[in-house]
Amino acid sequence: MHSLAAPGNTSPLLHNLNPEQLAAVTLPAEHALILAGAGSGKTRVLTTRIAWLLQNGYVSPGGILAVTFTNKAAKEMKTRLSAMLPVNVNGMWIGTFHGLCNRFLRAHYKNAGLPQAFQILDTQDQLSAIKRLCKQYDIDTERFPPKQLGWFIGNCKEEGLRPKDVVASDPDTRKKVEVYQLYEEQCQREGVVDFGELMLRSYELLRDNTAIREHYQRRFRHILIDEFQDTNKLQYAWIKMIAGQGSDGLLNGGGGAVLAVGDDDQSIYAFRGARVGNMTDFVREFAVQRQIKLEENYRSYSNILDSANALISHNSRRLGKNLRTVQGAGEPVRVYEAPSDFLEAQWMVDEMKQLIRDDVERKEIAVLYRSNAQSRVIETTLFNAAIPYRVYGGLRFFERAEIKHALAYLRLLENPNDDTSFLRVVNFPARGIGTRSIEQLQDLAKATGCSLHDAVSTLSGRPGAVIAGFVAKLDVLREQTAGLNLKDIIKLMLENSGLLEHYRNEREGEDRVENLDELVNAAESFVMQEGFGREAPGMTALVSSPEALTQSPASQGLSGAALDAVPDEFGDTGETLSPLQAFLTHAALEAGDNMAAAGQDAIQLMTVHSSKGLEFDCVFITGMEEGLFPHENSMSDHDGLEEERRLAYVAITRARKRLYLSHSQTRMLHGQTRFNLKSRFFDELPEECLKYLTPKQQPMLAGGGFGSSWGGGGYATNSGAGRAYSTGATGQFGTYSAPQKEVPRKEEPTGLRKGQKVFHTKFGEGTVLTLEGAGDDARAQINFPRHGTKWLALSVAKLTPVP
């Protein structure tokens, strides 16, 4: 290693750097680790380091290798360097792992055994290639779905394994290895490489070609790796090869100095293969003597930072750092407990309205959630409030592909002549209907002037038989759903259409399955809010009872499409929308209206994963409940729980000025109402930084609160479970309060009697077990077969006696 001259602080490049940033920028030429906390100026340090090395002549532009994780980050680095120095950044090796490996293989294509004009397969291209292979070799795609084969191949490459290196201890694995081998041969014949191949073939070329390896080890004197905590096993091995790092920890071939920049507390991509342990391995294997911690945060106030520090301190095996700021304490972190996810969303929107009145730009307000499916309730509430919003890094709920597919099936149940919906799902999930068959059907429909559905009977041969089978499936499903409520119609459709099975077999299909579950929730919420009633048949008219005809639309809680459907004269028998028709209209309006245009001042909605690298003045973190955040998939796994805590740390540190944390007592998830414990993460936050917007101990509520548009529920405890949860005593899995012993009160006349059958708009039909109190204090204990035993305040809950 060569040493650099003693650093001076006279260069304009070094002005306004804090002591830790200055130390990182002016490091000598040796391996070092920079622990860069959130908002600590990491990008500035990286670019200034490169500019300082170039300006002082310690390295030429060709001697720098800088690896980023996104093309956007690479572009930003080049832009900043161009502004700092008169240097041609385009010739410098700054880019993503895949981008740099592509450049490397283009330069050495012959040595890599590739054609000069080799092409790169994206994910969809790779899937198509595997499907062709399966068809050619008659591989059972039911047993070995092409997507799963693609994941297997990708995982092998990330581990640096070729087919001959994979240990196949069972018949299924042996078959997958066989397909892997056939896939490699096919790609080689066609002169194409996938993303995993770019990385693996570059690594192998460096490993096996001494001349090329030593050339790059001599060339790159300074190697800078951004977001080091997100590197996987193969990427780390590639870095070691470029740096001349032997397995014995010694430098071979005079490799360059590696500056690894990252934050182990923000490692949140284990599901993509990221290995946070690479950071500790780097310190050990490269014999790192210098670790510099960038702990001064330029983004947030100390109440936010102290909360983040306290939370992440519960993780073990951290390299360790504490964020700090000179900006002062700022506002406390606000904590809100809602009776339901609907009321949680309503509270957020009310708070947003006040922030906007206080001149906070909408684009500086972000809502973060653990699961994509959570956005639906929030989107609906924003839509109803006419507040523009943008779903960052994804689509609005009703615009997501899986939701559009499900809605297309529902539209075909309602109207089989809907050609747009027909074309969307006639071959989804795939059922062997080709493009040519569809074209033939369209030609027949055009010639006879009928819909595609009606033209199927005139299409002959195998195409006609296959498409007729699809139509028959729809007809059977239409019969099966007759008389069912909207929720059950959707659940049956999701199962029988094959949509759920299709997405369950996808590698990252869990989110899509959750979104389809959320569609069921959306439908149930919709029928309640629009006054249909939970059990109203999906295909029946809106106004169905004599009592309903004596009430105004407003008193029934009707709005939107449902209100439009009510005849002007209530005694009229004019046509009305069915719950299914009204819901489809609602979905179309939400998908097509109030969309925030690019650059428009709009509320930002996103998952916590999508928020990494972003910052906002005001941040709402919603759904902080056990099973949701931390996610239920991580609850039994120590490493999984630590990753969830890192995810919460990332979420908290997105906020500059104001942070809200909210949780809900009840939430619709996977088609069921859940009674939730608040997240254990609340117990790990410093009390002095928090401000509770609701009492820390509240009675457990059900039914959406106090006579809200959810149909009115009043107070209720989940007494069917033998206990009530609240925000009382602290425990490992949240909080628990033992139920207080009830003092029986004298029973007063209420119009009800023990043993009587009653109907509740949210819980359905139930039996009265006990009556207590009088007047506004009157309440009843009722057993609802589908929802357990609940106490309801009779002044709030609307109960109808069942004869």
- Structural class comes to alpha/beta
CATH class of the largest domain: Alpha Beta
Cα-to-Cα separation, first versus last residue = 91 Å
Supply Rg: 31 Å
What oligomeric state do these chains adopt?
single chain
The CATH architecture of the largest domain would be: 3-Layer(aba) Sandwich
What count of structural domains? Answer: 5
Strand content: 15-25%
Chain-averaged pLDDT: 80
The CATH superfamily title of the largest domain = P-loop containing nucleotide triphosphate hydrolases
Mind summarizing the main beta sheet? 8 strands, mixed
List the total number of helices.
26
- Kindly identify the CATH topology of the largest domain: Rossmann fold
What would you call the shape? globular
Weakly predicted, low-confidence segments: 247-253, 540-575, 702-749
Q: Roughly how much helix do the residues carry, as a percent range? A: 25-40%
Would you mind describing this structure in some detail?
By secondary structure, the chain is an alpha/beta fold. The protein is built from 26 helices and 23 strands. The protein has five domains: 12-109 and 199-296, P-loop containing nucleotide triphosphate hydrolases (Rossmann fold, 3-Layer(aba) Sandwich); 119-190, Arc Repressor Mutant, subunit A, CATH 1.10.10; 298-396 and 595-694, P-loop containing nucleotide triphosphate hydrolases (Rossmann fold, 3-Layer(aba) Sandwich), CATH 3.40.50; 398-592, PCRA, domain 4; 700-803, no CATH class. The strands form five sheets. Strands 9, 10, 11, 12, 13, 14, 15 and 16 form an eight-stranded mixed beta sheet that branches. Strands 3-2-6-7-1-8 form a six-stranded parallel beta sheet, with helices on both faces. Strands 22-21-20-19-23 form a five-stranded antiparallel beta sheet, with no helix packed on it. It is globular, with a radius of gyration of 31 Å. It comes from Rhodoferax saidenbachensis.
